[in-house]
Write a structure and sequence with these properties.
about 55% strand, about 5% helix, single chain, five-stranded mixed β-sheet
Length: about 725
């Protein structure tokens, strides 16, 4: 018995000797104790939690090199590998986790719409349910600050830049011809249906080094990764028909949609100011195929086709019989992209796009045939080097082959064209100094074979979270863009046009409410100038143009104050002047309004099973030149005003009746004036007001969804 007791005592003593005590204290970076932090040896059950003083202590029988971990919610996990004997009275300072939802967000110049955005100024639903937008994502974006109302054009004009200064990308790959063709003073629409896209990022300036060849803005469209159900959507509209279908298999899916538009019946019921020989007809279709790959990779193949045909005569003060214009346009766009994972935690994103755009145009007695083939190849690599440093780099190549055949009974035949190939490289890092301070630092290099020029574009953004709900951001960037094809088809002796952006932003977000205020300054250099009324083969071109744009944008959205009501207000002030094109002096361009205001309200009436929408758009007068007075761009139009309304009624959960009216009050808006080329017999230049073809537009549609889920409908695509 004594011998057994002796062995027990010896074993206990040996066990006690083998135990090592691990102890210390856990605080935040300010030295405040963290209560309840989890402290343990990796791969063992040995550990403890910190007490009210942030202290911890526990014993272990492990020996040699071990890994100690300390974790607590909203803080980065602390890891230290050393001999277990050194883990005594250690002081651990945890750093805040920069990836939490309340962390700082680098957002100067950027609006996002999507489920994955930390701050969503617009929801995907808003893109197509905004009154007056008529289902066009560009129309909805024109209610955001930073855009100018140019109602006779329809494209995006951002912060004093022309529409050509905004570039559009699908899944990171360039779209070369994103708008449908149209006649002068008739607004165009985006070619692509919002049906296939899950989110939008709209940057009004200071954007990532990943994107180039855009002086003012980029618009990023992200296609849907994984549709949630199989469904068929059918549309019957006053302007045409539409159908869409989605099929889902184990690892892939396919979505297609097609539409046919014919405005002849509508224009017969509601004649406009034009004489239509062939009213607008269009046939379009889109498809996206998605394939899940190994290691969670995703391959997407997107294709779109459209055909547009019209012929009309428009009023013209210099032509007694009016101005005759006709067009037949065929556009094919193909885009494929892949996202996957490489060894050592690298992510690869790669893709390519191809566009063929062919137009037969008749201008009075002249025939013009344009043919453009464009392609974009891109590869991008990303890696999170640490929780606080994210790095990406990439390379891309743009190809544009443009040819134009011009035939005139009086002038003869001419052939114009160019090949514009551009190679680009970029590198960028997101640096999170803390949960409250972050920076994005990047640089982009491009080489244009056509211009024989290499450009370097630095980009920098900084964000500081000033409190629980507010943050400040700053951004700077240099941006280059080759002259547009209207110039390159006649002359290639150019430099790239360029601008510098300086942006200061404040954003406040709290409980379904967003407030944004952003000031900016843009400095333009090397803009194209010429010495004729229009860009012609005989024009003398230079890069001597310059300009500036400065302003203030304000945005407020509230989905809290009023039950079942969501509304937003946006206001933009801009002061800008340019000396470019054939300008005789620096002046505010005719497409710029100093003040722009949009108010959008949406309200759901449960008893009526209806969603009601109303919007108001205001723009102050725009410059034009009156030759009867001295000076250049010496007069202003009256202000632009438009009230728009829509109504979506749920006949049943999957059947919707939809009505929308643009410019409900029929306000006589004027976008400018056309003057006679020669004075009349009393020495005065006669004029006519340039107005919309119709003051108002009515749209009625019936939308029916067929799916196994009886709750699905097309409310989010109207």
């Amino acid at each position: 018995m004594k011998r057994i007791l002796f062995f027990i005592i010896v074993i206990c003593q040996i066990s006690l000797v083998a135990q090592t005590t691990i102890s210390g204290k856990v605080t935040d970076k300010k030295g405040e104790p963290i209560i309840g932090a989890n402290v343990y040896l990796d791969g063992t059950y040995d550990g403890a939690s910190t007490n009210e003083k942030g202290e911890f202590s526990f014993t272990t029988s492990e020996k040699g090199t071990q890994t100690l971990k300390v974790s607590f919610i909203s803080y980065e996990t602390y890891t230290k590998t050393a001999d277990v004997k050194t883990f005594k009275n250690i002081l651990v300072k945890l750093r805040e986790d920069v990836n939490t939802l309340d962390a700082v967000n680098i957002n100067a110049g950027t609006f996002e719409a999507g489920d994955n955005a930390k701050v969503t100024a617009l929801k995907p639903l808003d893109v197509v349910t905004t009154a007056g937008a008529l289902g066009d994502f560009v129309g909805a974006l024109q209610t955001l600050p930073g855009t100018s109302t140019v109602s006779e054009d329809g494209r995006l004009f951002v912060r004093g830049g022309e529409a050509d200064e905004t570039q559009i990308f699908i899944d990171g790959i360039r779209v070369f011809t994103p708008y449908s063709p149209t006649a002068r003073n008739i607004p165009t629409r985006g070619r692509f249906s919002p049906f296939l896209f899950k989110g939008i990022t709209f940057s009004t300036g200071g954007y990532s080094a990943e994107y180039g060849q855009a002086l003012s803005s980029v618009l990023l469209l992200n296609s849907t990764d994984n549709p949630v159900e199989e469904r068929t959507d059918v549309s019957f509209m006053t302007v045409g028909l539409g159908v869409g279908n989605t099929q889902i298999w184990e690892k892939n899916s396919l979505s297609v949609n097609a539409s046919y538009i014919n405005l002849a019946p509508y224009q017969a019921a509601f004649p406009d100011r034009n004489e239509w020989h062939r009213p607008v007809q269009s046939l379009g279709g889109e498809m996206i195929f998605r394939q899940k790959m190994k290691n969670d990779g995703m391959l997407k193949m997107y294709g779109a086709f459209s055909y547009v045909d019209f012929d009309l005569t428009q009023d013209d003060i210099n032509l007694a019989d009016g101005f005759r214009f006709g067009m037949k346009n065929r556009n094919l766009y193909f885009n494929t992209s892949y996202k996957g994972f490489l060894p050592n935690d690298w992510t690869i994103l790669t893709g390519l796009s191809f566009t063929n755009d062919h137009s037969n145009i008749k201008i009075e007695g002249d025939d013009v045939v344009d043919n453009e083939n464009s392609a974009h190849f891109k590869v991008k690599l990303k890696k999170n080097l640490s929780n606080r440093l994210k790095f990406n780099l990439g390379a891309e190549y743009f190809i544009t082959d443009f040819k134009e055949d011009f035939t005139s009974p009086t002038s003869g035949k001419f052939k114009n064209g160019f090949n514009n190939n551009i190679a680009g490289m970029f590198a960028e890092a997101d640096v999170f100094f803390s949960k409250n301070i972050a920076s994005k630092i990047g640089v982009r290099a491009e080489h244009s074979e056509l211009l024989n020029e290499t450009t370097i574009s630095p980009r920098l953004s900084l964000a500081y979270k000033a409190g629980q709900n507010g943050q400040f951001s700053l951004a700077y960037g240099k941006f280059f863009q080759n002259p547009k094809k209207e110039y390159l088809k006649f002359n290639t002796d150019f430099k790239a046009e360029n601008t510098s952006h300086f942006i200061a932003n404040y954003q406040y977000v709290k409980d379904k409410q967003i407030f944004r205020m952003e000031a900016y300054y843009k400095d333009y250099n090397d803009l194209v100038k010429y010495d004729t009324d229009f860009s012609l083969p005989t024009s003398n071109f230079t890069n001597n143009g310059s300009g500036y744009a400065k302003g203030l944008d304000v945005f407020w959205r509230d989905n809290k104050s009023f039950k079942n009501t969501d509304y937003w207000l946006s206001y933009s002030f801009i002061d800008t002047k340019r000396d470019y094109k054939n300008y005789v002096q620096s002046a505010t361009p005719g497409f710029v309004a100093k003040h722009n205001l949009s108010v959008v309200v949406k309200h759901f009436v449960t008893e009526w099973k209806s969603q009601l929408g109303i919007s108001y758009n205001f723009a102050s007068g725009r410059n034009y030149t009156d030759p009867n007075l001295g000076g250049f761009l010496n007069q202003k139009t009256k202000s632009y005003n438009s009230i728009n309304a829509n109504w979506a009624y749920l006949i049943s959960q999957q059947k919707i009746f939809y009505v929308s009216v643009s410019n409900v009050l029929g306000t006589k808006n004027i976008s400018g004036y056309q003057f006679a080329n020669q004075p009349n017999n009393i020495g005065k230049f006669d004029s006519r007001a340039i107005t919309p073809a119709a003051d108002s537009f009515f749209f009625v549609g019936f939308f029916w969804t067929i799916s196994s889920n009886k709750d699905s409908n097309q409310l989010n695509t109207l």
